[in-house]
Design a protein that fits this description.
alpha+beta, Arc Repressor Mutant, subunit A, two-stranded antiparallel ribbon, 7 strands, about 25% strand, disordered N terminus
Length: about 100
């Protein structure tokens, strides 16, 4: 059984009592250093299964596209404390900023 705390400014807790595990956290891309941000984006772009269609897109173009999507808030960086992983996911519409 874990202890959870409520994050005052958002009203969201960082512990899922039903699953008894830490809840994934959205990490604003603006809070990362340039090097860390580039590392997260490159890791995402280099994963197998990332498909850009039939045309060839350079690595730099892919990185730029993901950065642009982050700036437009179309995607979000998510850290999962359960397995210490970081990924980029499509942003849900609406007010829920968790994921």
């Amino acid at each position: 059984m874990g202890v959870w705390r409520r994050i005052p400014e958002s009203g969201v807790s960082d512990w899922d009592e039903e699953l008894e595990r830490a809840v994934p956290v959205v990490v604003p891309h603006t809070e990362l250093s340039q090097d860390a941000l580039r590392g997260v984006i490159e890791s995402f772009v280099l994963r197998e299964g990332t498909d850009y269609g039939e045309r060839d897109v350079s690595h730099e173009q892919k990185v730029a596209q993901v950065l642009q999507q982050l700036e437009k808030r179309e995607v979000r960086i998510v850290f999962d404390p359960a397995d210490s992983s970081v990924t980029i996911v499509v942003a849900k519409s609406g007010r829920d900023e968790r994921i």
